[in-house]
Amino acid sequence: MNNDVQWIVEFAIENDNLNDFKSIVQEITRIVKENEGGTKSYQWFFNDLETKCVITEWYQSPEATLAHLNGEAASRLLPKLLKVSRITRLEIYGEPGEEAKRRLIKLGGQTFHFFDGFAR
């Protein structure tokens, strides 16, 4: 087993806020890509109607997870994203560390610890 931490967040986009949502997501992604080297994967997916969006996030360690939560994308832009959408699902896989876990649970997250399997 490794120290990787992953999570999935599902957002429901409120009313006619799709363009605002997309704009904020693009800014968040740019910031994470440029500033958070411990992020292994950061990908957004829309359903066909573009009323829901899912992001999959993968961090190389609990420290990288906490760095993301303390970074500009989460601290400055997540509140803006939550004005135009709402979190309908947040699942955390792995051991993110106590502080990150507490903060993610506060957002409605549910944690899952590793049982069995492999990644290549």
How many DSSP E strands? 5
Counting DSSP H or I runs of 4 or more residues, the number of helices is 4
Strand content: 25-35%
Please give the alpha-carbon distance between the first and last residues.
12 Å
Spatial strand arrangement across the major sheet: 2-3-1-4-5
CATH topology: Alpha-Beta Plaits
* Cα Rg: 14 Å
Strand/helix succession: EHEEHHEHE
Report the mean per-residue pLDDT as an integer.
Answer: 96
Q: Shape, please?
A: globular
Low-confidence stretches: none
Largest sheet: 5 strands, mixed
CATH architecture: 2-Layer Sandwich
Q: What count of structural domains?
A: 1
At the first level of CATH, the class is Alpha Beta
- Helical amount among residues, as a percent range? 40-55%
Structural class of the helices, strands and pairings?
A: alpha+beta
What features would you describe in this structure?
The protein has four helices and five strands, in the order βαββααβαβ. With 120 residues, it is an alpha+beta fold. The chain has one domain (5-112): Alpha-Beta Plaits (2-Layer Sandwich), CATH 3.30.70. Strand 4, helix 4 and strand 5 form a beta-alpha-beta unit. The longest helix has 18 residues, at 18-35. The N and C termini lie close together (12 Å). The model has no long low-confidence stretch (mean pLDDT 96).
